[in-house]
Amino acid sequence: MARANVKSKPTYRTQVRNNRRIFVELKPVGERDKEFIDALTTDFSDSGIGLLTYITFPIGTRIEVSLDDNVTVKGEVVNIEPWPGYDLVRLGIRFLEKTDNWLV
What we know:
Elements: E1 23-28, E2 37-44, E3 48-53, E4 62-67, E5 70-83, E6 88-98
Antiparallel strand pairs: 1-2, 1-4, 2-3, 3-6, 4-5, 5-6
């Protein structure tokens, strides 16, 4: 019996994503002595953000995302994917806290 070729949407994405690219900085929450790491947004929604970076963090790591020297988002790493063709990883971040102007 042949199976139907059906593609399903990922269950972890429940909101429409914006694919705008913006340079941001990130670091683990509470690591005051550590410098921010450069990252590039791949997509974002009201509940989360995808970030391309050279540095990875374990799933469950809480991070701060900064835009223009202001911490605008605190989130948790929920997904890690290699970025094909580059030495980058895409971190999927679920928001825990964000300011009203987080990516206006």
